[in-house]
Amino acid sequence: MASGDRYGLTYIRTELGADGVLWVTLDRPERRNAISPEMHAEFLPLFTRIAADSDVDAVVLTGAGEKAFCVGADFAGMDVKLEAGYPDGNPELMNGSAAIVRAQLAVPQPVVAAINGDALGLGATMALFCDVTFLADDARIGDPHVNAGLVAGDGGAILWPLLLGVNRGKEYLMTGDLMTASEALGHNLVNHTAPRAEVRERAGALAARLAAGPKVAVQFNKRLANADLVDRVNRLIDTSLAMEAITFETADHREAVRAFLERRPPVFGDRKAPDGQA
Asked: What is the pLDDT of residues 78-132, one digit of tens each?
């Protein structure tokens, strides 16, 4: 693997190997690599720098530690947001998140995901936007935005119906259920599964093979294969993020956050908890 940080980011490690493979590691292992606002702000410069870095021939995206790849957005601080609200319709969700999706898809080099543990929500989305995916055989993957009363607006609602088929994609988006690795492989959601201890090695081996291949042909094949996905993102990402912004203001989302903080199941809509309390 590589040594020495490439881009000097705070929450994302970047290490370039002699083989031209850039290792990108989401680096908040104490929080299962949950995405804080500060980490989120580093994704756009990360992808922009990779795209412009002529020394990078392939990329491996993984998570620090052994517990998780990335469990999505960090719930810490959401209780504060419940009180303060989101200014002016939450424009940063619309602007920043859309730019990150487009920037990830604009990376010309092949990107291999080494999903070394659970990948949830935005973590799953970023992994599935990669070109080839290796998932640890004891890990889970899913988009449980709906369990927080939210639309999967940052890419999940675009990706899951495309990768799984419309009806199966809708089922997972509407239930928030998580897939086991064997289910994900069986549904063709991921390319490969491997023992957790081998995921990074196998992902790195493929990335090195791609890095050693004919650069222009590899990158142009990626561009052509991604054309429909890029078109789908351009058609839907603004609408999906606008819908997610709306759900941040709903009673169901407020209930989901309160339930999370109080360590109890949420009770959505007009239904009452078993003890009679809302």
From this structure: 666 666 666 666 666 667 899 999 999 999 999 999 999 999 999 999 999 999 9
Query: Tens digit of pLDDT for each residue in 123-159?
Result: 999 999 999 999 999 999 999 999 999 999 999 999 9
Q: For 149, list phi and psi in degrees, rounded to 5.
A: 75, 25
**CATH class of this structure's domain 12-197+207-261:** alpha beta
Residue pair 113/127 in contact (Cβ under 8 Å)? The answer is yes
Per-residue pLDDT tens over the stretch 38-88:
999 999 999 999 999 999 999 999 999 989 999 998 876 666 666 666 666
Nearest residue to 160 via CA among 149, 151, 172? 172
In sequence order, what are the residues at sequence separation of 6 or more whose Cβ sits closer than 8 angstroms to the Cβ of residue 267? 255, 259, 273, 278
* First-to-final CA distance of the chain: 52
Fill in the DSSP letter of residue 35: B
What is the reported pLDDT for 17? Answer: 97
Helix 156-164 to helix 166-175 angle, to the nearest 10 degrees? Answer: 140
Measured CA to CA, the distance from residue 129 to residue 132 in angstroms comes to 9
* Beta carbons within 8 Å of 3's beta carbon, 6+ residues apart: 15
User: What does the domain layout of the chain look like in residue ranges?
Assistant: 12-197+207-261
Please give the biggest Cα pair distance in the chain: 65
